[in-house]
Design goal:
By secondary structure, the protein is α+β, with helices and mostly antiparallel strands. The chain folds into three domains: about 90 residues, Beta-Lactamase (2-Layer Sandwich), CATH 3.30.450.20; about 80 residues, Signal transduction histidine kinase, dimerisation/phosphotransfer (DHp) domain (Helix Hairpins, Orthogonal Bundle); about 150 residues, Histidine kinase-like ATPase, C-terminal domain (Heat Shock Protein 90). About 50% of the residues lie in helices and about 20% in strands. It contains ten helices and twelve strands. The strands form three sheets. A five-stranded antiparallel β-sheet has the order 2-1-5-4-3, sandwiched between helices. Strand 9 and strand 10 form a beta hairpin. Helix 5 runs antiparallel to helix 6, helix 6 runs parallel beside helix 10 and helix 7 runs parallel beside helix 8. The longest helix is centred in the N-terminal third of the chain and has 55 residues. The protein is elongated, with a radius of gyration of 35 Å. The N and C termini lie far apart (about 100 Å).
Length: about 375
């Protein structure tokens, strides 16, 4: 009887322990289930809020999976692409855009994380859409669609207007320039018989005509570059030699302004692939500007150096400098800091630095400025070797 009672006690204790363990396990399971439900509910709420946000956007929004098929599209995307509501889901990007460019943007985003491209729709409206793609954490891609058709149309009108105006101005300006040169030669031939005031006025006519010719030429250059005009024949370019040539071309101009030009070029410089005429134009522009903004007796240094896998060219002056607020805009077309800051001549067209930026970017390089007011400025550009 004692053994039987002891067995009952042991069994009761075992059952109690098992029961308590079971209760704890059930509680843990319920807690885990509650957490899972809360997590799912939060995900659903996030998706609902995201869908509400997407539906309120004016920009088209497409979510595509790793196989580049649409899994979600907001109303703006359907409207922009002229598709019935809900008809985009399940379609591939090729079916949606009928242009491989959109698929290329998405593929690029899958590997690099982000990508941007432009797609021209093959429909009667001829829509032009900028597609911005970003890879998401779930492995899919979100595409933002923006209609830029009107913007591109206005840009084309502006380019055509500037191009036509420049061509119309070029012929009469060429004639006036030739007449001014003729007057200058005749004034030199007459010598002292010509009154000094008249000689001075003839000189001013020639200078101002030259400024107008330069403005028209720069307008045409910028118009061609912005319209997507390609560079000339590409060659292996020695930027050290190009910098030296540009300096020699402007040495007489610098001497007349009382400015000394210095060139710092290493013995050997890696070549870059580019259009020597366009790169020479950039160097001439930077050196010319540096001389204009230098004081009498000042100096301008043109330095060429190698950094990593790039060749860097810097043009440094010790002139008036550029205010910090203006440095971010200095490469915009028609932007001028202050006419009063230029010594000895008019301030130019405000196009030279814009042209330089476009040319350097066409060469897959970058251009920048470092400047301190009252100390001077350094304009630099870097091109890949």
């Amino acid at each position: 009887m004692l053994a039987f009672g002891l067995a009952l006690v042991v069994a009761f204790v075992a059952i109690s322990v098992a029961a308590r363990a079971s209760i704890r396990l059930d509680a843990a399971r319920r807690e885990a289930a509650d957490r899972q439900v809360a997590l799912v509910r939060a995900q659903v709420e996030r998706l609902q809020s995201r869908d509400e946000l997407a539906d309120s956007l004016d920009e088209g929004l497409l979510d595509v999976d790793a196989s580049l098929h649409v899994v979600r599209a907001n109303p703006a995307a359907h409207s922009l692409l002229h598709r019935p509501a809900g008809s985009l889901v399940g379609r591939s990007l090729i079916e949606v855009f009928l242009d491989p460019a959109a698929e290329a943007v998405a593929t690029h985003a899958l590997t690099d994380g982000t990508a941007v491209g432009e797609v021209r729709m093959a429909d009667a409206d001829g829509l032009i859409i900028v597609v911005r793609a970003r890879r998401m954490s779930d492995g899919g891609i979100t595409l933002v669609l923006l209609d830029v058709s009107e913007l591109r149309r206005l840009q084309r009108i502006r380019t055509e207007f500037i191009d036509n105006l420049s061509h119309e101005l070029r012929t009469p300006l060429t004639t006036v320039s030739l007449l001014a040169e003729t007057l200058t030669r005749e004034a030199d031939a007459v010598g002292d018989a010509l009154p000094p005031k008249m000689r001075d006025r003839i000189g001013k006519i020639e200078v101002e005509t030259g400024h107008l010719v330069q403005m028209v030429s720069e307008l045409l250059d910028l118009s061609r570059i912005e319209s997507g005009s390609s560079l000339g024949p590409l060659e292996d370019v020695d930027l050290g030699r190009l910098a030296t040539d540009a300096t020699e071309r402007l040495r007489l101009f610098a001497e007349r302004q009382g400015v000394t030009l210095r060139v710092d070029v290493p013995t050997t410089v890696p070549t870059v692939r580019g259009d020597p005429a366009r790169l020479g134009q950039v160097l001439i522009n930077l050196v010319h500007n540096a001389v204009k903004f230098s004081p009498d007796g000042g100096d301008v240094t043109i330095e060429v150096r190698t950094e990593s896998e790039t060749v860097v060219v810097s043009v440094t002056d010790h002139g008036v400098g550029i205010p910090r607020a203006a440095q971010d805009r200095i490469f915009e077309r028609f932007y001028k800091v202050d006419r009063a800051r230029v010594r000895g001549e008019t301030g130019g067209t405000g196009l030279g630095l814009a042209i330089a930026r476009h040319v350097i970017e066409q060469h897959h390089g970058r251009i920048w400025v470092e400047s301190t007011e009252g100390v001077g400025s350094t304009f630099s550009f870097a091109l890949p070797t």
